[in-house]
Amino acid sequence: MNAPISPPPETRYTVLDAPRRGIRDVLMRWEVILVILLAATTVVNTMVSPYFLDVFNLADATFNFSEKAIIALAMALLILVRQIDLSVAAIVALAAMGIGYAAEAGFGPGALFAVGIGIGLACGVFNGLLVTGAGLPAIVVTIGTMSLFRGLTQVVLGDQAKTKYPQEFLDLGQSYFIKMKETGISWLFVPPVPLSFLIFLVLAVLFGIVLHKTATGRKLFAIGSNPIAARFSGIPVDRLTFLLFMVSGILSGLAAALLTARLGSMRSNIAIGWELDIVTMVILGGVSIAGGVGSILGVVLAVFVLGLVTFGMSLNNIPGQVVSVYIGALLIAVIAIPRIVDRLGLRKPAG
Amino acid sequence: MSEPILTLTGVSKTFPGVRALQNVSLALRPGSVTALIGENGAGKSTIVKILTGIYTPTEGEIRVAGEPKSFASPRDAWAAGIAAIHQETVMFDELSVAENIFMGHMPVGAGRLVDWSEMRAKAAALLKRIDAEIPPEFKLKRLSVAQKHLVEIARALSHEAQVVIMDEPTAALSANEIDDLFRIVAQLKAEGRAVVFISHKFDEIFRIADDFVCLRDGDKVGEGPLSDVTEPQLVRMMVGRPVDQVFPKRDVPIGGVALSVRDLSNATEFADVSFDLRKGEILGLYGLVGAGRTEAMQGLFGITPLTRGSVTLEGKPLSIRSPADAIHAGISYVPEDRQEQGAVLSLGIRENVTLANLVKHVRGLFLSRPSEQDETRRLGRRLAVKAANWEQRLGELSGGNQQKVVIAKWLATRPKVIILDEPTKGIDIGSKAAVHDFIGELAGDGLAVILISSELPEVMGLADRILVMKEGRVVDEFQRGKWSAEAIVGAATGARKEAA
């Protein structure tokens, strides 16, 4: 049986509070790779086009990705906890349709945002109930609701478009939140910031703080790393998962309002295919599809990289299909390179 | 004495910050069984991984039959005649026995197609050689663990392996199955193969092995014929400190009733479980695997749904619907399955230690890192966790140290009742003693302890009282000093009165 022995002597070794980090550990961080990528994109674009580094052009460029980027924040948390929501773009469509009808009925801008967010919330609750209540896999549930929500929009609208919106609502989507002349101080340079971009930045800071500084964020990392051990540790896994689906719905509804206000019209094919653009942002941002790894900073950087690449290419009249090829190649390269570096033994082996 | 079939000379393996193996040399001779012994984390698995081509040594030389070799992959190791039988079998559940045996080198016939009848015939012949009555066409998932080991041995034979490594092959086997396995080891030996045998059980080592190599913290600390050493000598070599008393039972004053459980029942797993537990008391919960001990305790902890029953803690009735409720009330549960249920392997030590009681470290809205670090340092030192730093990922620690971190996590919740489910399962002997000692200390601090263990000496050594469960019910109760191993096992197996 067990051999008798005494417990080990108390401390014959010292345990450091934190590892000693070499310069290589810092340089190989995902965020650093993204910063380099961002710098490279900026340099190349600036060399190719004189219009790239223009504040007004850059501000305009944010219009094209801010709504997606807002949803990407929720998607990042879902993927972090091993879930996914592929119905986000369909939620945008359903919510945008609701906004369209509400606008025709004479609602004001505040009410239209509330309608969008409310529909998004309802869709998120539906997804969340199916995943946590019925215990179905998120990918299956949200592929289903993707068809369901989009199909509903198509059935109701047909090939009709919703184009009547109050002017104040359209102003919110099409103007800058801060205009140069409003600052009034000539020597203080305040760049023009569109509302949707400002909302994205504020939400990104909020999400970053929640994920990286609060107990809730730690719980999300634990769920993503090992949902069973998380449950045994008293973490309400289902409740938090449900909450994230709700947040995903809410942000999709918010994005729908911003998008509708910007476009001034909506059809049933609005935001089509966005779900994969959003997943691309999250994955490029370094959030592990296996769960438990990721940072909001990474996602924000990835949003900028993708936004600037798309903007730079459009400045040079490169067609959308080529942009798509480039982004696909970029994603694969950025995912593959660290693995290849690992194989070559330049990095600490993982586990 | 015959020439060694395999030698390691001055082999070292380092990972960044970790020295897994330091200048180890050993020689394996044909027709002999070498026991590789050491605590978990001593470097045994590293040697196995080097021999099987999973790791490349940082320094040193491997020679097979006198030829220097370097294994770039497991395939190279197979080709050099080295086969390993692992603790948990690594095979293909959905494929047939024959396919498992010949995976990677299936006999092919005309047109490069697999020659199924030849493969089955060869597999049957190999299985017959080791007297294993397993039909080659059976899917692997239909077999018991013992039978899977036999299939692995047949696979090793199919490669004509000259060196067979067995990494804790008996961990999941019954006594009869162990006898069968040892018969086959003797046969491999008689055929002139070299066998490396890894086990934590000394009776097995002395029964089957000829020589031993002992590792500690990556160094070789002893080797030689087993006939020259005694068990206490080996233990001292392994742990590097002197032997003393087994399971020192502390004298702890037992206080008032802490926990009262009445009629705890679940639809299928357990029924009418009732007991009282006092402060400072260690209550052993003994029974066979599947007796419902784990399920009943997980019911108490809010994991398994209850159909009936009441729980009172310090006179207050509790309604526990989730682990969070249980933790809040002051009940902790250290699960049996450390890897899945206990530890979050990809998070660091600090993050694991504070996970079940994060609220304690919240200042304002945010988590306070200094507060987390204080707690981690305090509990980590108290449990003598061995690590490079407190941020180290749990997956990088040995099993024993992982278990200490998991226990630290539960202590961090400041429980009144702690339930330990097989707390020493699969951990090395040094950590085991530390955990035993610690359980006594907890009781001394006035905690009420429930200890689930399938190791009778462990329960008998530590508990003040033992409840025996069988088929989901408490069937007997024994007081310290008035029990015998026979009576306890009798109650657990139903030897006294068989319920049909």
UniProtKB/TrEMBL annotation, chain B:
<keyword id="KW-0547">Nucleotide-binding</keyword>
<dbReference type="GO" id="GO:0005524">
    <property type="term" value="F:ATP binding"/>
</dbReference>
<comment type="similarity">
    <text>Belongs to the ABC transporter superfamily.</text>
</comment>
<keyword id="KW-0472">Membrane</keyword>
<dbReference type="GO" id="GO:0005886">
    <property type="term" value="C:plasma membrane"/>
</dbReference>
<dbReference type="InterPro" id="IPR003439">
    <property type="entry name" value="ABC_transporter-like_ATP-bd"/>
</dbReference>
<dbReference type="InterPro" id="IPR017871">
    <property type="entry name" value="ABC_transporter-like_CS"/>
</dbReference>
<dbReference type="Pfam" id="PF00005">
    <property type="entry name" value="ABC_tran"/>
</dbReference>
<keyword id="KW-0762">Sugar transport</keyword>
<keyword id="KW-1003">Cell membrane</keyword>
<feature type="domain" description="ABC transporter">
    <location>
        <begin position="6"/>
        <end position="242"/>
    </location>
</feature>
<keyword id="KW-0067">ATP-binding</keyword>
<dbReference type="InterPro" id="IPR027417">
    <property type="entry name" value="P-loop_NTPase"/>
</dbReference>
<dbReference type="InterPro" id="IPR003593">
    <property type="entry name" value="AAA+_ATPase"/>
</dbReference>
<protein>
    <submittedName>
        <fullName>Sugar ABC transporter ATP-binding protein</fullName>
    </submittedName>
</protein>
<feature type="domain" description="ABC transporter">
    <location>
        <begin position="252"/>
        <end position="496"/>
    </location>
</feature>
<keyword id="KW-1278">Translocase</keyword>
<dbReference type="GO" id="GO:0016887">
    <property type="term" value="F:ATP hydrolysis activity"/>
</dbReference>
<keyword id="KW-0677">Repeat</keyword>
<dbReference type="InterPro" id="IPR050107">
    <property type="entry name" value="ABC_carbohydrate_import_ATPase"/>
</dbReference>
<keyword id="KW-0813">Transport</keyword>
